[in-house]
Write a structure and sequence with these properties.
Elements (H helix, E strand, L loop, with lengths): L34 E2 L6 E3 L8 E10 L2 E5 L12 E4 L7 H7 L7 E6 L13 E5 L3 H4 E2 L8 E4 L5 E7 L3 E5 L9 E13 L14
Antiparallel strand pairs: 1-5, 2-12, 3-4, 3-5, 3-12, 6-12, 7-11, 8-9, 9-10, 10-11
């Protein structure tokens, strides 16, 4: 089943993760984050994903025809297996989150997620240059080397060093998957509607 996600009717994703900045399943935030599968609290199971449902799923993500991530141990030996997330609550990137709604138990789907519903479009405004001699006062990095990941100490932003010369160091603060269309193969393994938590302070009145 192909279930493309269209831009026209949905706003731009506020970006981070499964983040996993390279983990496309968390709200950048890959992506709150989806958690490895575990036994849920008592719940009522049903057959179609609705907002608020606790969903257990397998996924495989492709970018530009290359494998990015997967819960399939054959494809990704380091995987912890299926994950769980509450649908429609922003625990996954927007396109993935919305693509789950309406899927049935044990159904598989291919979700094509544009940048606007994933990690955003690439922005040249997020490419910054600082004087190399002042670099250490603004950023933290073991050394000023192209490809190093750094963090702005004041804003908390993460970036990647893309050029270094005697005068300036250029850092790209775009998420690594900015501007990328994600293709996610997903299979729904379980759907449960969590029950409201029981208030332990509530007293039960027994009438005889």
């Amino acid at each position: 089943m192909n279930k493309p996600i269209f831009i026209a009717t949905i706003g731009v994703l506020a970006v981070f993760l499964l983040f996993g900045c390279v983990n496309p399943f968390s709200n950048p935030t890959p992506t709150p984050s989806a958690s490895p599968s575990q036994t849920p609290t008592p719940s009522i199971e049903h057959n179609v994903v609705q907002a608020g449902d606790l969903v257990t799923l397998d996924y495989t993500t492709w970018v530009d025809g290359k494998l990015l991530d997967s819960t399939n141990k054959t494809l990704n030996p380091s995987s912890n297996g299926p994950i769980q997330a509450v649908a429609g609550k922003g625990q996954l990137i927007r396109g993935f989150d919305q693509g789950l709604l309406g899927l049935k138990r044990f159904e598989s789907a291919n979700l094509t997620i544009p940048p606007s519903l994933a990690y955003g479009e690439y922005s040249q405004d997020k490419v910054k240059a600082v004087r190399t001699v002042e670099f250490a006062t603004v950023f933290t990095a073991s050394s000023v080397v192209v490809g190093n990941k750094i963090q702005n100490q004041s804003s908390g932003e993460f970036g990647t060093i893309i050029t270094v010369n005697n005068t300036h160091t250029t850092i790209d603060f775009n998420p690594p998957l900015a501007g990328k269309t994600l293709v996610i193969n997903v299979k729904i393994l379980g759907i449960a509607k969590p029950r409201a938590p029981v208030d332990p302070s509530a007293k039960t009145n027994n009438t005889k």
